[in-house]
Structures are given as C-alpha cells and as structure tokens.
Design goal:
single chain; alpha/beta; TIM Barrel; eight-stranded parallel beta barrel
Length: 219
C-alpha cells in the first residue's frame, strides 16, 4: 500500500473548506502544503499556505506534509512548526553547505517532526546520500518546482530507482516521496521505481470522485 499526499496548491478559491472535507472523507494520507516564497521559485503561496495550514489544523485530523520551496529555510521551518506537521521537507539547493543542512535537520527534529530533503530534477541524487541516515523522507521532484499541473519528467524514474537501490543496499529506512505530474497514467512508473509516497494535486482535485482516484493511487 502506497501513501497519498494531496497537494492543495490548485484548490479553487472560496471552496477550500468544502474541498478539504471531501479529501478527508476520501482518506488522503496527508495534505501536501506547497510553500513558495516568490524567490526560490517564481510563485508566492506563503501566506495562503499559512492560512490553509491553520484551517486544516483546526478542523481535520489528516496530517500536514509541508514542502518548503523557499530561500529562507530556517524561517520557513519556524513559521510552520506551530501547525505540528507530520513532515517538513526543505530543498537541498536552498542551503549553502552541509553544516546548514544538518542545522535544518536538527531544528525540525527538535520539534518532533519528521524530516524531508527534496531535490530538483537537475540535482544529482547522490548529493543527498550523506544525509539519508538522518532524515525520514527523500522527496524527488519529477517536475521543476514552482507550479502545479506540469508534465511528469520520465527520466526521473531512473533517479528514483537509483535512490531506492542505495537505500536498500545500506539498510536505511528513508521513504521516497515523488512530487510532480503524478496521476493514474504515471503512477505505475514511480511505484515500480521504488516510491513510497505519491504527491498528487491536479489529478485528484479535478477528479469527479476524490476517493476513487486516491484509492487507485494507494493500490
């Protein structure tokens, strides 16, 4: 069984409460919170995601899966820790050196939150190997981060497979999360490559029946 993290990035304005309730009833495993600052990526969703996280935390038992696509990782962590997410993921590319990466990992862990590190499509997967023993989730971007509805980059399946083999060979427990262009047409490729958590936004939000597609992605 795979886990599904539903991105709320493209939820229609004014229908947030209704949509979040429907997603909870459809038993999504996580609400995926795409936090963008308009600097690390072009789009700025920062305040919207704070407001959505606050609402979800007050009204739902579904855990938050926070994906920080921001330059200032440490402020991002501090801003979203109060919502007690299950996972906070930051981008390797946003930090200057290994010391900063370890500092971010420790800051998240100190708040009893699972740690994720994400890499963009052009970043070599080997760059996160040294951090895998200290984190819970490795998030592989299968599109360029910054907006929803993009087409899945098929070459990323090889990156997922390479990472999965490394995790298995080294007896690590790190989960692999994939984010970008995940739908019923692309799910099998990322599952076969070794993914554990599938992030899907557009495919679920635009579906007539959320439960049907979430069940298929989990299966």
């Amino acid at each position: 069984m795979y886990e599904v993290s539903t991105s709320i990035l493209n939820v229609e304005k004014g229908k947030e409460a209704e949509t979040f309730l429907k997603l909870e009833k459809a038993r999504t495993d996580y609400f995926h919170i795409d936090v963008m600052d308009g600097k690390f990526v072009e789009k700025d969703t920062y305040n919207d995601m704070i407001n959505s996280s606050l609402y979800i935390k007050r009204t739902s038992n579904i855990p938050l899966d926070v994906h920080l696509m921001v330059e200032d990782v440490f402020t991002g962590i501090e801003d979203f820790v109060p919502f007690e997410p299950n996972i906070i993921t930051f981008h390797l590319e946003a930090l200057k050196n290994d010391e900063e990466v370890i500092k971010a990992i420790n800051l998240i862990k100190e708040n009893n939150i699972r740690v994720g590190i994400s890499i963009k499509p052009k970043t070599k997967v080997e760059e996160i190997y040294k951090f895998l023993p200290y984190i819970h989730v490795a998030l592989i971007m299968t599109v360029e981060p910054g907006k929803g509805g993009q087409t899945f980059i098929t070459e990323m399946t090889e990156k997922i497979s390479t990472l999965k083999n490394y995790i298995n060979e080294n007896n690590l427990e790190t989960q692999i999360e994939v984010d970008g262009g995940i739908n019923l047409a692309t799910q099998n490729a990322v599952k076969e490559a070794g993914s554990d958590i599938l992030v899907s936004g557009t495919a679920i939000i635009r579906a007539i029946n959320y439960k049907d597609i979430i069940d298929e992605l989990k299966g």
